[in-house]
Design brief:
The chain is of the alpha+beta class. The protein folds into two domains: 1-31; 33-126. The protein has helices at 2-24, 35-62, 68-74, and strands spanning 87-94, 98-105, 116-119, 124-126. It is elongated, with a radius of gyration of 22 Å.
Length: 127
């Protein structure tokens, strides 16, 4: 009888923990909806870091930041910003002194996925 009550108490405790977890993370751990989304977002973050590093290298050689087209022409970037991993990449350059790279979901299947940005501080922000 004592074992049955112990098992019942354990099940109730597990149920409480489960419901608290689901309330905190409704879409899974950290808010990610699926392993595919986690993998794709990791790839997008890697792309953003690579593009930002290319901007830094371009600045060192040209004393100004570059557009995506200029980075492609210089050979620093080998992919198109149009659709990579279902995201569209745009580089905004402010008077050659600042840049902001934005990755926006372009694939209709990725509607609702976050928009990611990075600037010269090398910090990735998620909206």
């Amino acid at each position: 009888m004592k074992a049955a009550f112990s098992l019942g108490g354990l099940l109730i405790a597990l149920a409480i923990v489960y419901f608290l977890y689901k309330a905190q993370y409704p879409d899974g751990a950290g808010g990610a909806k699926s392993p595919i989304q986690q993998i794709d977002l990791t790839g997008v973050r890697t792309d953003l870091l690579g593009l930002a590093q290319s901007e830094r290298l371009y600045l060192a050689g040209h004393t100004t930041y570059a557009s995506l087209e200029q980075l492609q022409q210089s050979g620093a970037v080998t992919f198109s910003g149009a659709n990579r991993r279902g995201y569209h990449y745009v580089i905004e350059v402010d008077a050659g002194k600042h840049f902001k790279i934005t990755a926006t979901p372009a694939d209709p299947a990725k509607a609702g996925w976050p928009v990611l940005t990075i600037d010269e501080t090398m910090q990735i922000l998620q909206k």
